[in-house]
Design a protein that fits this description.
Layout (H helix, E strand, L loop, with lengths): L1 E5 L3 H12 L3 E5 L3 H8 L10 H10 L3 E4 L11 E4 L14 H13 L4 E5 L7 H16 L5 E5 L9 H6 L4 E5 L2 H11 L9 E4 L1 H32 L3 H9 L20 H14 L5 H13 L2 H9 L8 E5 L14 H11 L3 E5 L4 H8 L4 E2 L3 H4 L5 E4 L11 H7 L4 E4 L6 H6 L3 E3 L3
Parallel strand pairs: 1-2, 1-4, 2-3, 4-5, 5-6, 7-8, 9-10, 9-12, 10-11, 12-13, 13-14
Antiparallel strand pairs: 6-7
Helix pairs in contact: 1-3, 4-5, 8-10, 8-11, 10-11
Length: 436
């Protein structure tokens, strides 16, 4: 089976690689010539554990190729996946110009029955616009070519994307035709050997499922952060509260960890887009508006704790920061709490020393030399007056407190992910602060 995937960002490249791993011939398309040349040279533009080796393996096997021109492969493929970006507009709505550009190109050049599948996260109603754009181009050509559109949202977690794709807990496909349904079933059959987990829906429902899922997870995070802040005020321990409510099978344990706010490419963008979709339909999403407000406030919580410890003045202080990415196992810094913290700390007149296992090049691309980049976690704490744990990378989980005591100027640890033991920190002479 031959497919094309337009867009070699996170979703497109991971999806294409995993399809190729199952023996499907994949052509990855991107208008960014530099990105395609890098891929042809064996350079992977994103960090995802295991992805680089898998790409090289499937390129060598002839199952993956890269091009800047969809038309070079369109005649030979059965399915075209659109995995281009849908960045938020200034008002929070999803920008569909790249999605519609793919539809236009598809309509200008398609010659035989092909399915155009939207894998990007798009608002409800996008498939209708895609279908209309394709049909408009066919009308201009004066030709009748059968085609279908479908929605196949992704549910990949950065840092575990390959596992999520290869052994999915569900594959959602929205389609209007039995023909498209059969082709999509065949395409995903290799991933269903341990059980049928395909969910077929109408197209609007498939488009809504992704937004609803991410918004629910974001809601759980903001809810627990609100609970954590209240716990501090009343003397409760949010970790005990989490265990108590997480053991309720109606609630479950996942996404109940308090922290310094969520970031990344999905939750912030999708919450904003769903709020905007509701606005456009005359309905205020009051819960999600609160979710977003709580999260934005939570990104400053570590700065507030830092300021409080030093009596409101950190002018001239040196602050160490462990972790820059919005979560472990990725270099993604989109909407990352670290960016908010760095800005506030620098504006307050302090120096910031940072270390992250993979995200420092991305940080430098975003903010330049506002901070001091260090070669390891201990160098970052050299002569630091306080340490902020922002991203819970595994290598940060068991630091040498003896080493920290020796090299830090002040023994202050502010734990933004609640991974350290308060009693152990205090026994070693550290002033320790956590969330909740």
């Amino acid at each position: 089976m031959n497919i094309a995937i337009v867009g070699t960002g996170y979703v497109g490249l991971v999806s294409g690689t995993c399809f190729a791993e199952m023996g499907i011939n994949v052509t990855c398309v991107d208008v960014n010539e530099q990105k395609i040349q890098s891929l042809l040279d064996g350079e992977i533009p994103i960090y995802e554990p295991g992805l680089e080796d898998m790409v090289k393996k499937n390129v060598a096997a002839g199952r993956m190729r890269f091009t800047t021109d969809l038309t070079t492969c369109l005649d030979d493929v059965d399915v075209v996946f659109s995995a281009v970006g849908t960045p938020p507009d200034e008002d929070g709505s999803a920008d569909l110009k790249y999605v519609l550009a793919v539809a236009k190109t598809f309509g200008q050049h398609v010659k035989k029955y092909t399915i155009l599948v939207t894998k990007s996260t798009v608002p409800v109603g996008t498939a209708q616009k895609v279908k209309a754009a394709i049909q408009a181009e066919l009308d201009k050509r004066g030709e009748q070519v059968e085609f279908d559109v479908a929605s196949n949202p992704e549910f990949l977690k950065e840092g575990a994307a390959i596992k999520d794709f290869m052994t999915p807990d569900r594959v959602v496909v929205g389609t209007e035709s039995d023909r498209a349904r059969k082709i999509m079933s065949r395409l995903y059959k290799p991933f269903m050997q341990s059980g049928e987990r395909m969910i077929f829906t109408d197209i609007p429902s498939a488009e809504m499922i992704k937004y609803a899922a991410n918004s629910m997870l974001a809601t759980r995070i903001s809810f627990m952060n609100d609970i954590a802040n209240l716990c501090e005020l009343v003397g409760a321990d949010v970790n005990m509260v989490r265990k108590g409510i997480g053991s309720d099978t109606r609630i479950g344990k996942k996404f109940l960890y308090a922290g310094c706010g969520y970031g990344g490419s999905c939750f912030p963008k999708d919450v904003k887009a769903l709020i905007k979709t509701a606005e456009q339909n005359g309905y205020p999403m009051q819960v999600l508006q609160a979710v977003e407000a709580v999260n934005e406030r939570q990104k400053s919580i570590l700065f507030e704790k830092l300021l409080k410890h030093f009596g409101g003045d950190i002018q001239g202080k040196t602050i160490a920061m462990w972790g820059l990415a919005f979560k472990p196992e990725t270099d993604d810094m989109r909407e990352a709490p670290a960016l908010v913290l760095i800005e506030k700390i620098c504006q307050a007149g302090a120096t910031v020393r940072v270390y992250d296992p993979v995200a420092m090049p991305e940080c430098k691309r975003r903010i330049g030399d506002q901070v001091i980049y260090c070669k390891d976690m201990y160098e970052a704490t050299l002569d630091a007056d306080a340490l902020l744990l922002v991203t819970e990378w595994k290598e940060f989980r068991m630091p040498s407190l003896t080493a920290l005591s020796r090299i830090m100027a002040g023994k202050v640890v502010i734990d933004g992910r609640n991974i350290y033991d308060a009693e152990e920190m205090c026994e070693n002479g550290f002033a320790y602060y956590k969330i909740g």
